[in-house]
Amino acid sequence: MSVLAPLRNTWRGLTSMRTALILLFLLALAALPGALLPQYDLNPETVARYKTEHPVIAPVLDRLGFFDVFSSVWFAAIYLLLFVSLVGCLVPRTADHLRGLRAEPVATPRNLARLPHHARATTATAPGEGVTAARARLRGWRIATRVEASGAHTVSAEKGYLREAGNLVFHFALLLLLVAFAVGKLFGYEGQVIVLANGGQFCNSGLFAYDSFKPGSAVDGTELDPFCLRVDGFTAEYEQNRQARSFSADVAYQQGAALDTGEWTGTTLRVNHPVRLDGERVYLLGHGYAPRFTVTFPDGQQRTDAIQWRTVDQSTLLSEGATKFDPPGVTDPAQRRTRQLAVTGLFAPTAFFDGALLTSIFPEPRDPAVAVDVLRGDLGNDSGRGQSIFSVDRSMVDSGRLTRVARENLRPGEDLTLDDGTTVRFDGVEQWIAIQVSHDPAQEWVLVAAVLVLAGLGLSLSVKRRRFWVRAAPGADPAADGRTVVEVGGLARTDQAGYGEEFTRLAAEVLRTVEAVAADEAPAHPPPASVAAGDGGGTPEGRDSE
Amino acid sequence: MNVDATLAGYSDWCFAGAVVVYVLALLLHGAQFAVGRQGGTRRRELVPAGAVEGSARPRVTVVPDGPHANVHPLPGPIEPSTGRTGRWGRMAVALTVLGALVHLASLVLRGLAVERVPWGNMYEFGSAICLAAVVSWLVMVRRHDVARLGVFVLLPIVLLMFVSGTLLYTQAAALTPPLRSYWIVIHVGTIFIASGMLLVAGMASVGYLLRTAHATNPARFAGIAARLPEEGVLDRLAYRVTVAAFPVFTFAIITGAVWAETAWGRYWGWDPKETVALVCWVIYACYLHARATAGWRRGAAWVNVLGFAGVIFNLFFVNLVVTGLHSYAGVG
Ligand code: HEM
Fold it and tell me: A314 and A288 in contact (C-beta within 8 Å)?
């Protein structure tokens, strides 16, 4: 007993077809919760909601990785085992295939009549000549001719090696696909950021430039390919029923040498039409509005700002947000914290007032208006706590450190005046777009692998591996009048169906060719060849597929 | 973009008409089934192989011979069978052809009414799947004597048509910007063709399972199974259609990934529809492997049925219950 025996047995077990089948099944099964349960990766909020709705089961699921299926250990274990099993199965099969390519087609079976496809004829042609003629007919087949002890000449022909080749290509391409996928996951990244469409700029200078950033495992966000993007304008068109017709942003970018020369290249960014830079792709994800406010302080100083408000209704683009101002010229932090301002509320691109209640009835900025509260006091942004850019810190309001000093509905150009003489003017509205920058160094390889998967699959499912034999035996048969007996036989090594027709045609052609040799030699009218063929297109069970 | 309401109206009428014709065909198949005799008709085929045009060569007549001569991989085309049941079956098939034409008209009119491909929402997509299934079915019926499976194939088609035309019905309308891409022609077009073919394959496997269950225990499905085509025929029908559909399905998934790269910024992101598509793909890969494993025919048939269940699950559950990037269904 060798120490290696258990190892070898494990290996054999792992590389068997049965194991591959089980692993495939497990893969399908394991992927399912990824589609049925909320996933952190896709939508962390739905995970959070699920957790509050299922307080008992959710922590268990969470521990087991069910909310993060595709990065879980068990999912990785299954596909890695499948990978190993695939390699273990492919290496010997490739060797076999290469050997098979060099080997001669197998010898002609003793009894061709036992094959699923069979035909027989007698002819005046001598066996050797008959076989030469038959051979010439079988162009495109791999052929071996032999002479048997009985004096019979045979042809063994085989075709359809591409089936196995295609099959191997398919499986290897799957491996390549998996590797390329993994490389992309390691070295790729995705980042999202909002840019104002009024000449606003974004530079890919590091992960801090993004609003959210999803790095690959081997990316730390410090060495991103530098490029800059400027958004010069944005247009959205809608149908009358508020359904969007098209979105398009005018952008310009700089990359490589252009970053030093300061030269911009203009292009348009649209849905389904990303801007493809060298190494990165930029996508248009969404858009929204950024109302612009100008605050004039009692001392006459002005501050203007427009930051993105977030969309609360996708069909009308009613938006909410908070635009925040620091009083100018106040250096004492304590002082400043009593006089900070926030303009917060709703923005409607096409306003409709239900009483004083603002709603929007169309997503285009046809008749914009805001319904705002102005809050004054301590915004809480010195507190060290993270703040949403879309709202004020509620705790500041609750503790009374931030109080409402005005509430009004404004149209562009209208303003409101606070008790201390400060005025807040609603100037108008800017648009913003949300873009995504994606980087995946291996995605071309994934495409190459996918095309190979498809090509290999096509070959291995459409090509038939088939064999064809001819035996021309000298006429020892008295019943045959001393004539040569020509027999042909055929066998498909894969799905038999369909070989029948080809065989019948080929058999008839070959037999006619053989007969024609004699006809050419002896111009006298030979008696017609009598031919018998078995063509059931038969399918002995278990042999009709590989 | 304007929707041509007149054409859209005609399209809806054609859709309803197609459903009615399919139901009639289903009833005829049912009648054929109810009074049909048991067992399949087999036929020996005489192939005059030497009948090559203008040939001065000696005629070579190939006649059946040998032990396998009567084993057909699939039975040949429908025989000019006589008797009521054969006639009903033929009428059912003829009606199905008519239904398919009206159905095609419905999709073409919808496409003309909205000036785009007519598979942009769940109603249209469901309808397109059914048409693909009917056409694949008719191709198989033309080639092989499998018409007796008609009830099994038409029943799910009629159901799916009905559900599409009622619950999922969507007014003719333009597409949202993400769907305005030629990839919708390629990706969704191949998906519905593959899904339709897989429906036929799945139902052949259902028939196969009934028949084999009946064979092991004659008491089971006695009324149904004996009237179906033979086991081997059903098994090969399922295999043939799946083998043809699988590369199409693979192609559709790959083009989906290519589109996702252009539309969503990544070629694969485990979106629910993507994930379930992969699961279905893996199940069909299992089917091909299982069928290649000796002694696994029944297991393989189960896998094939499971695969089609997955496709249907992806269509309904993932569109209507789970939310993901693929939520273009246009319902709810
Ligand atoms: C890796 C990427 C993708 C995969 C694997 C994929 C897979 C699928 C599958 C399996 C279906 C049919 C499911 C069913 O029966 O309903 C489907 C349908 C569809 N796909 Fe994709 N897809 C991908 C990307 C995309 C993209 C990027 C778009 C468009 C932006 C898209 C648009 C559609 C539409 C419109 C349908 C059809 C109908 C519907 O369900 O209402 N797919 N996809």
Answer: no
Q: Between A477 and A422, where is the model more confident?
A: A422
A359 in contact with B at a CB cutoff of 8 Å? Answer: no
Q: Is A248 on the interface with B (CB under 8 A)?
A: no
Q: Which residues of B are less than 8 Å from A451 in CB distance?
A: 254
Residue nearest (by alpha carbon) to ligand 1 atom 25: B256
The CA distance from B220 to the nearest CA of chain A, in Å, is: 25
A105 Ramachandran zone, left/alpha/beta (phi>0; psi -120 to 50): beta
C-alpha distances in Å from residue B72, one per residue of A62, A535, A540, B62, B87: 55, 10, 10, 16, 24
| Integer Rg of chain B from CA | 22
Nearest to residue A83, comparing CAs of A185, A205, A176?
A: A176
CA distances from B231 to A116, A479, B40, B208 (A): 20, 43, 10, 6
User: Is the Cβ pair A239, B174 closer than 8 Å?
Assistant: yes
Q: Which amino acid is at B126?
A: G
Q: What's the pLDDT band for B73 if we cut at 50, 70, 90?
A: very low
Residue B304 has pLDDT above 70, yes or no: yes
Q: Quick one: how far is CA B77 from the chain centroid?
A: 19
**pLDDT of B7 strictly over 80:** yes
Reported pTM: 0.83
SS3 B228: coil
Contact (CB<8Å) B279/A532: no
Q: What is the mean pLDDT of residues B140-153?
A: 90
Could you report how far apart the first and last alpha carbons of chain B are, in Å? 23
How far apart are alpha carbons A271 and A244 in whole angstroms? 11
B81: amino acid identity, one letter: S
Contact B62/A535, CB-based, under 8 Å? yes
What pLDDT, in 10s, does the model give residues A427-470?
Answer: 999 999 999 999 999 999 999 999 999 999 999 988 888 899 99
Is the CB of B48 inside 8 Å of chain A's CB atoms?
no
Distance between Cα B188 and ligand 1 center (Å)? 6
pLDDT tens, A187-227? 999 999 999 999 999 999 888 899 989 888 888 877 889 99
Helix boundaries (H) for A248-406: 258-261, 333-339, 394-398
Residue B171 banded pLDDT, cuts 50, 70, 90: confident
User: Looking at the predicted complex, does its ipTM rise above 0.85?
Assistant: no
SS3 A195: strand
Distance between Cα B165 and ligand 1 center (Å): 20
- Burial of residue B121 (CB within 10 Å: 0-12, 13-18, 19+) is buried
Give the angle subtended at the CA of A387 by the CAs of A381 and A388, to the nearest 5°.
Answer: 140
Residue A462: predicted pLDDT: 87
Please judge whether A534 and B261 are an interchain contact, meaning their C-beta atoms are less than 8 angstroms apart: no
| Protein residues whose CB sits closer than 6 Å to any atom of ligand 1 | B 121-122, 125, 178-179, 187-188, 191, 195, 253, 256-257, 259-260, 263-264, 268, 273-274, 277, 311, 314-315, 319, 326, 328-329
A184 pLDDT exceeds 50? yes
The letter for the amino acid at A333 is P
Name chain B contacts of A116, Cβ cutoff 8 Å. Answer: 66, 68, 71
From chain A, pick out residues whose CB is under 8 angstroms from the CB of B254: 450-451, 453-454
